[in-house]
Design a protein that fits this description.
16 helices, 0% strand, globular
Length: 304
């Protein structure tokens, strides 16, 4: 079984990103998706650069040797993923977004199998099927007939493209781990990602509406920048290195459960029967995935 630290690294990104359901519910009304992505990652970059200013000064040789990896990570994991996801969230049906969120772990698993040879055991695949079913059950509000109404409009396509971009980022991180410390790595790619997002923000309208919306939502912007962006990505990156891309991705299936809990706690929305049913299926599936990984690790040790 994963240790306490590794288990925390698996759970924290999903929990933090699920909190965007609550935090972002009002921000997206007043601030455009590209502007929100650019500003929040800009906040993250400033905090991370300040925290790592001493380390980065002595890592110039690593920055030069890993320039391609750093740019790819910033483009796929920061600019493309966050910008496309926020844009898709504005245009897509909320139910469809909940369903399509479940495609990210599947994309990561498929890409990891092809690119780096990370394969799941039969029991783990069964666990994945259970977690996917649980996530879909919550996404369709316990009504299978809602799947018939699933239509891929522009917003849904943007969500899928965002997920594909994040899958590329995650597998590349496992395939070519950076020699930079985790915080320094995030400081660099957050900065590059912010710069990449600037033109998209300008095209969208930039600060056309003025500073009012940003001042109004300064608390939410700070939270998204520091916690949902910087901290969550540090946890995610470290989990990919320690636990592998597949296992880390599987824990994204806990997002619906966390989202339900946050909506109940902060928005006073009720927890209904289909929520519990989905949570049970997700939990059972994740247990199978984790136990399967533990068994495979122990078996590999015995063979050695």
């Amino acid at each position: 079984m994963p240790g306490v630290v590794n288990l925390a690294l698996l759970i924290l990104p999903a929990a933090i990103w699920a909190s965007l359901v609550v935090v972002g519910v009002t921000v997206m009304v007043d601030i455009g998706p590209m502007a929100l992505a650019c500003v929040t990652w800009g906040v993250a970059a400033l905090v991370l650069l300040w925290a790592t200013r001493g380390t980065l000064a002595g890592s110039v040789h690593i920055l030069r040797s890993e320039a391609g990896l750093l740019f790819l990570s910033a483009l796929t994991g920061i600019a493309a993923f966050q910008g496309l996801w926020f844009a898709g969230l504005l245009q897509a049906n909320v139910t469809n977004v909940a369903i399509l969120t479940a495609t990210l772990p599947v994309m990561i698993a498929a890409l990891a199998a092809i690119a780096i040879g990370e394969h799941l055991s039969p029991w783990q695949l069964f666990g994945v099927a259970l977690t996917l079913a649980g996530a879909l059950w919550v996404g369709v509000y316990g009504d299978v007939l809602r799947l018939k109404g699933l239509r891929l409009g522009r917003g849904e396509v943007l969500i899928l493209l965002a997920n594909l971009s994040m899958a590329v980022y995650t597998v590349a991180l496992k395939r070519w781990p950076s020699k930079l410390p985790p915080l320094s790595f995030m400081a660099v790619i957050a900065t590059i990602g912010t710069v990449i997002l600037v033109p998209a923000m300008i095209i969208e309208g930039g600060f056309g509406p003025g500073w009012g919306p940003y001042i109004q939502h300064v608390g939410a912007i700070t939270y998204i920048g520091v916690v949902s962006s910087a901290a969550a990505y540090v946890f995610w990156n470290e989990s990919v290195v320690r636990n592998g891309a597949n296992l880390t991705a599987m824990f994204l299936y806990t997002q619906p459960a966390f989202a339900v809990a946050f909506c109940w706690l902060f928005l006073k929305q009720p927890v209904l029967t289909y929520h519990w049913q989905g949570i049970v299926a997700i939990s059972a599936g994740l247990i199978l995935v984790v136990l399967g990984e533990a068994y495979r690790t122990d078996l590999n040790k015995d063979l050695k």
